[in-house]
């Protein structure tokens, strides 16, 4: 499929509709880079801390799930300080409160389930293997974006999807697995399956969020992006807390606190910093959906997941055998293929804008 027929990744809305078209090119890229840093640093730190929690004696998947959204009140800081003065003058009629409630509740409940799947996967996999398996989310998101967000496929994007899929397949069939101590082969396979399902569900959520911004909320402001993150995180946190008490797992928290091998203070700080890291990541995720697209947001998440094994090697001394090294290199290759396509789309989009401006001037 020709590249010039693809919907540009770097301009998900038409230039005259998106509020960011007023930004200078350099300012737009600064905004993109800031969100990329938030996403990569936040996600890498959260995964490493999540594995640290399990390694030092934590066993509650419910607790590991709740910290992924519990720090959502932090998002009120950028929400109140980054409000646009144009928001109060928007003329479009807002959607009904009932519709918003249904959207936020459904997305929040799905986020809660997705968080639990990720927590189970991280319990049974090393941080490096977990991250490389989750890199398949780009492949899933490319598919969902094609059907839901009308994102077109090119040869480079298809190449990226195939390579990332092969990367995860290598890890799945790797006999020399580096599963955490006490994890059987059966649980290792369960970890891979739950990581794949969680990645698919997460990718679907990104595409649904982008569709909601465009078709329901019909507002392209950062405040609206944060509102969705805050309300869905609140719902997800409530659902997981209910599950924590309903399962009876809350009774084990006191024991974890006292037996955490690195100390009681470390236990609290691990949970707190994990929660904060996930919210920093969330700001980057929804920010890139707003500024660019869900597919670009997911490819940056993939880059972070490809970088995390390096951090895991340093922090946990994870075993990096030949299969895992090849899988990591494939992940970087897949990311590079997509970024190059992204670069071509940006050039094509800006060339079309320049030609259009020239034609209008001649007319």
Verbal overview:
With 363 residues, the chain is mostly helical. The N terminus is likely disordered. The chain starts with 24 loop residues before the first helix and ends with a helix. Helix 5 packs antiparallel against helix 7. The chain has 13 helices and no strands.
Strand count, sense and barrel status of the largest sheet are:
none
The span between the termini is 33 Å
Q: Strand pairing plus helix content: what structural class?
A: mainly alpha
Poorly predicted sequence stretches spanning 5 or more consecutive residues: 1-18
Counted beta strands: 0
Mean pLDDT: 79
Query: How much of the sequence is in beta strands?
Result: under 5%
Question: What's the structural blueprint in terms of helices and strands?
Answer:
Blueprint: H1 25-55, H2 61-66, H3 76-81, H4 97-124, H5 127-134, H6 137-148, H7 155-172, H8 185-217, H9 222-246, H10 253-259, H11 264-291, H12 294-316, H13 322-362
What labels describe this entry?
single chain; 363 residues; mainly alpha; 13 helices; globular; disordered N terminus
